[in-house]
Amino acid sequence: MSNLLDLLVAGLATGAIYALVAVGFTLLWQTSQTINFAQGEFVMLPAFLMLAVMHAGAPFWLAIILGILLSLLLLGLGFKLLLVDPMLRHGVLPLAIATMALAIGMKEAVKQFFSAEASPFPSIVPAGDVSILGRVVSLQSLGVLALAIAVVIGLTALLNRTSIGHQMQATAQNPTVARIIGVPVERMILLTFLINAFLVALASLLITPIYLAKFSSGEVLGQAAFIAAIVGGFNQVRGAIAGGLLIGVVDNLAAAYVSTQYRAAVPLILLIVIILFRPQGLLGRPEERTV
Amino acid sequence: MRSGIFAGLLLATVSATAAFAQGAPIKLANVAELSGGGATVGNNWKNGIDLAIEEVNAKGGLLGRKLEVTHADSQSNPGVARAQVQKALDNEPYVLLGPGYSGSVKVTSPLAAEAGIAQIMGGEAAELTQGGNKFLFRTSFGQQSSMPKVAKYINDELKAKSVAIVWVNNDFGKGGRDVITKEFAKYNIKVAADISTEAGQADFAADVSKIKAAAPDVVFVYVNEEESARMLKELKRQAITVPLVGETTLVGQKVVELAGDAANGARGHVGLTTDAPVDLVKAFREKFVKKYNYVPDHNGLKGYLAIYMIKATTEKMGKVDSKAFADNLHGLTIKAASEPGILMDVTFDEKGDIDRQGFLVEIVEGKQVVKQVLPKLN
């Protein structure tokens, strides 16, 4: 039982990070039909941007701010203007393939200009432990979980309780009608790209102290978040959140109670089951997009 | 008259060819893990090789000829390593260097043996030198030499009755796990948890939870460097306080750099360390740091030593003969007094295994501290 608590806390902490990345998947899909197969690499890059700023002599807090700003510029604005906009007019598939090429390019560039070796990355959550129900739980796990949940709650509030959020949802549901009723659709789409860039930068900040900064670290994350988004519901933010947490927990329980070798297969099996019996995902809704 | 001119031209041509051959560089080929999970291993190894070659060439080369090396990336993938080694052998190098991963050595060593080219590598899996390959040479201890020392330390010094073994599921990890499990059995040390992990694994939370549940007296960690660092961080995160013991891959410089505070207290047996209380090793460390601006791990030492193994053997032969090289290295003792580049006295046996002094170290405040020097056996 006590072991189960450890596994749940660790799984939720990892799952919360998956959720941040998965939310980005769903946001981009909903507003611009972009399936970003470079999403994992989008998580990898901000850590290197922050490291580059620190190597230039800046303190960690400044590196975080500049890293997030650079991420917004490169992974938000730059991604939309330089890759998505020119490719999207040719259809979803060419764009998806272009993002695969982008993923390879980002990995190789980091390998070339930074290093093929892993680098340490400082944690924003201090080391230490607290006692919960008589069990020692690490502050880092709790901190990661708390921060990720706070961001998800903030994002949900933005989408559901603000005018901008309603305009973004209108853009996602039917851009033509949204445009007719005066929603600045293009601006809303750009905003989702910027939100995605912010989310991946935050995920990078939280996961890199654990996984270490390495050019290949996005591969696992990208796959896990993609599965999480489908399992939870690709067209619902709340689905991506639930999917992320679920995959984090299932992955950890599978490693502990099934086997380390097969742990990667268990979320995929879950994915197959979901596609067979509930194609829209656990919390998703059937697509109502018009043609 | 005409025949005299012809004879003169022929003589001149032969002389020129001989002179050219005399001065032609000696070609070496290195295939190592320059990217992928083993990038730390391969890049340290490569830098060690480059440093040694620079030194040898600066002093006039080997038997008057410059050393020249080509570096190829195995991407830490045995399949790629095999292809790269085949390509390297097609260029007929004097000696093949690398790879560092045991799995890659296992699939490439038959190619080098078939070509009759000596292969000096960084792999530590016990089985590598047990198959009768006469062309394969280690640069550090194999598991059959190091694991008994680790098990003895856990029994004699730590008085452990139970141990959790964490190993990486590849040739290196499985080989080490098999050897040390037998050693633990000799001391009646119970294996409370036997946990296999994957190469390149990022998340160790579940594995550490299993260790926590097993409550062993000691945790023995035998995974590669980057995974060791992630493991140490997770062990600290989950407040595991029992002694953490391993081999070089747990207490290497790169692990300390990556794991930070989490590495403190980790202990292990190392065949090579730049913190060794040996003057020549200290001098090597200074030269390496000056050139590359970081402290190398044992792989940097291995790469460096590989070149001086070639130098000492070739000078003993008095000629550059790739076919005779392996025969001459078998049974050879190289003394640091006569060849300072070898850093410590070393003897190579008939299998290509080495006999050299070793060290028991502990990480204290982010630094390797040598607790015990284990002398050379013969």
UniProtKB/TrEMBL annotation, chain A:
Lineage: superkingdom = Bacteria
Assigned keywords, A-Z: Amino-acid transport, Cell membrane, Membrane, Transmembrane, Transmembrane helix, Transport
Its subcellular locations are: Cell membrane
Transmembrane feature ranges: 7-29, 49-75, 87-106, 139-159, 189-212, 224-250, 262-281
Molecular functions per Gene Ontology: transmembrane transporter activity
Q: Which InterPro entries match?
A: ABC_transp_permease (IPR001851), BCAA_transport_permease (IPR052157)
Q: How does it sit in the membrane?
A: Multi-pass membrane protein
Biological process (GO) annotations? amino acid transport
Keyword Transmembrane helix in annotation: yes
Output the Gene Ontology cellular-component terms. plasma membrane
Q: Per its UniProt record, what CDD domains does this chain match?
A: TM_PBP1_LivH_like
**Can you tell me which family this protein belongs to?**
Belongs to the binding-protein-dependent transport system permease family. LivHM subfamily.
Q: What is this protein called?
A: ABC transporter permease
